[in-house]
Structures are given as structure tokens and as C-alpha cells.
Write a structure and sequence with these properties.
Layout: H1 3-17, E1 26-29, H2 39-54, E2 59-62, H3 68-78, E3 84-87, H4 92-98, E4 107-110, E5 122-127, H5 129-143, E6 148-155, H6 158-174, E7 179-186, H7 195-207, E8 212-216, H8 220-230, E9 234-239, E10 250-256, H9 258-268, E11 275-279, E12 286-288, H10 300-315, H11 323-326
Parallel strand pairs: 1-2, 1-3, 3-4, 4-5, 5-11, 6-7, 6-8, 8-9, 9-10
Antiparallel strand pairs: 10-12
Helix pairs in contact: 1-9, 2-9, 3-4, 5-6, 5-10, 7-8
Length: 334
């Protein structure tokens, strides 16, 4: 039984015994807002699925500044919401500052890490983004006619380098001679919400020969996907299924099941199991999107190759390098 299966099973059994007496959960979105069509929106969709399927209610807030992080955590905890679910690595430090003051409140950091020994009421949910990125990298290399593909990241942090590194490894597994062009949008949180800069970087990569560009940049990625469609090249979406944004122009999307993580945490309520959870291909925590919007772009040969690689990654026969383990990337220079 996989970790995700166990998690889902525990959530389902707890949901059945929950009852109306339990406190409502709360959700704090990272900067960029809940309608970013990417990471935050995946969290929103998970919360909406929780409400729809259980009949429960939840409270949410969109942060406008860094200063609001700790303030929002304390406000929700003092109001009795439980658990308080957060998105983005930047919530780790604020949660570590707040958690001990509210020992009966469960906190969740998605993409962040809080030491479970120091803060036993916190669940850190991490994803193996490098594994999913490897698969979409393979697809990009197989779809490319020029042998040059691109990557546009948001904020230049180890997490986003993890996406880029896995992607480049997947590209070069298909075509060792391929060129991978990588650019980051910036070094501050504003990098997550700058579609104009995303468009500029995409045009620059196209001028260097890129005919498939993967965006891992939150709201900035919308500018990447739009420009790729306008310039008649392919793009790869991220986090949520973004294939529908430009049907026939988005090769696939690297799915990061933030929606499932949020929904399951909310269903567990105050009985949430804390600690550290890592969700990869084996747990269906990451993957790639196929639907009517991209089916004509992905050949049977491509699907067979990617599914074979997926099975080998799960079995340990293919090792995808995780940038966050040693701050290095054999397949790409930053």
C-alpha cells in the first residue's frame, strides 16, 4: 500500500466519523492569489472538493504581503479553525514561530518544512517535483523538432531548480544532444506573478531555438503559455492541469496534487496526522496531464515511453536527481 493510499484511507475513515462538532479548517494562500490557475488554485480546488463532498465549510485568505503571514496564522488559530492549511515554502518560518503557542491546533505547510520534533502539531507535505518534471521533460524532447527546449522558473530558489533539474534530465534521457535553456523570473516573491516578464523570457528562448517551454512560475507562467501559443510553439504547464488554457498548444502539464493534499488534510480535521509526508510518482503525488486538449499532441509512442520511465522510477531503476539534496544539477547549469 502506498503512502498516498494510506493517507487517503485514513482521511476517508476519519471523515466518516467526523461529525459537525469538529472545527472548520482554514486555508492560507501564498502570494499570487487563489486564482493563479496553478499552485494556489490547486489548493483552492482541493478546499472546494472538501466542501462539496463533505458538506463542510472552510475559511480562506489571500495574502497581500509578507507581513501578513504570521498574523493570518494567529488569527485563524485563535478563532478555533483546525487544521490551518498553508501553501508555499515561505510559510515554514511563520508556522515555526506560531505553532508552539497553539498546541491544540494542527498546522499544515505544503512545500515547506517544519521540524516535527520541535513542532509535533505540524504536518509538512513535500512533493517529488523532480520525478514529474522528468516525465514532462521526456515529452518535451520527443515533441521538439529543433532539439532545443526551454524552462522558465519563478523565484530562483532550490525548489524551482528541482523542477528544472528533473526536466533537463528527462530531456537528455531522450536526446543527449538536446539544449535546455533555463531562466528564472526573479529573486523575490514578485517573481510568481509577473506574466509580462514570463512572456519576455519565452520570446528570448524562442529566439535561441526553443520550440517547447516548460513554465514552473505560478502566475508568471500564464505569460509563458500565452506567448508560446501566440508564437506557435508548445508549452508545458505546471501544478494544475493547464492544458485547457490553450488547447492544442499545451503539450501537457506537470501535475502536483496540491488539491488532494489540501482536501485530505481538511477531511482529517483536528485528528490530522502530523510529521513529514513526501508525495511522488509512487504515491500519485505528481504526474502529467492527458485530456482532450492535448491528446492530438501526444503520440502512443510518447505515452509508452513515459509510462515505461514512470514504472522504472517507481521501481528504483531510474534515479532522478533531486537538486534539493545537494544543490547540484548534473543535467543543467544554472
Amino acid at each position: 500500500m502506498t503512502l498516498m493510499t494510506k493517507f487517503l484511507g485514513a482521511a476517508a475513515s476519519l471523515a466518516l466519523t467526523a461529525g459537525a462538532a469538529l472545527a472548520d479548517p482554514a486555508l492560507i494562500y501564498d502570494l499570487g492569489g487563489k486564482y493563479d490557475k496553478s499552485f494556489n488554485e490547486a489548493a483552492f480546488n482541493g478546499a472546494e472538493a472538501y466542501a462539496s463532498e463533505t458538506g463542510g465549510a472552510y475559511k480562506d485568505i489571500e495574502l497581500q504581503s509578507e507581513a501578513q503571514r504570521e498574523q493570518a496564522l494567529r488569527r485563524f488559530a485563535e478563532a478555533g479553525f483546525n487544521p490551518v492549511v498553508t501553501t508555499g515554502f515561505s510559510m515554514s518560518a511563520p508556522i515555526a514561530s506560531v505553532a508552539a503557542d497553539y498546541p491544540d491546533t494542527k498546522f499544515v505547510t505544503i512545500d515547506g518544512f517544519v521540524n516535527p520534533e520541535e513542532h509535533p502539531n505540524v504536518l509538512s507535505i513535500l512533493f517529488s517535483e523532480h520525478e514529474g518534471s522528468y516525465l514532462v521533460g521526456m515529452m518535451a524532447a520527443m515533441a521538439s523538432k529543433s532539439g532545443t527546449v526551454g524552462f522558465v522558473g519563478g523565484m530562483d530558489i532550490p525548489l524551482i531548480r528541482k523542477f528544472a533539474c528533473g526536466y533537463a534530465q528527462g530531456v537528455k534521457a531522450v536526446n543527449p544532444d538536446a539544449t535546455v535553456i533555463s531562466n528564472m523570473t526573479g529573486t523575490t516573491p514578485a517573481a510568481w506573478n509577473d506574466p509580462v516578464k514570463g512572456s519576455e523570457l519565452t520570446k528570448a528562448q524562442i529566439s535561441q531555438g526553443a520550440d517547447v517551454v516548460y513554465a514552473a512560475a505560478g502566475g508568471t507562467g500564464l505569460g509563458v503559455l500565452q506567448t508560446a501559443a501566440d508564437e506557435n510553439i508548445l508549452s508545458v504547464g505546471v501544478d494544475s492541469n493547464q492544458n485547457y488554457l490553450h488547447p492544442g498548444k499545451v503539450l501537457t502539464s506537470m501535475l502536483k496534487r496540491v488539491d488532494v493534499a489540501v482536501k485530505d488534510a481538511m477531511e482529517q480535521g483536528p485528528d490530522l496526522q502530523t510529521g513529514v509526508m513526501v508525495l511522488g510518482l509512487a504515491e500519485n503525488g505528481v504526474g502529467y496531464a492527458m485530456d482532450e486538449n492535448n491528446e492530438a499532441l501526444v503520440s502512443d509512442e510518447m505515452k509508452t515511453a513515459v509510462e515505461d520511465a514512470k514504472a522504472k522510477i517507481i521501481a528504483g531503476e531510474i534515479a532522478v536527481h533531486d537538486y534539493s539534496t545537494d544543490d547540484s544539477c548534473p543535467a543543467l547549469s544554472f
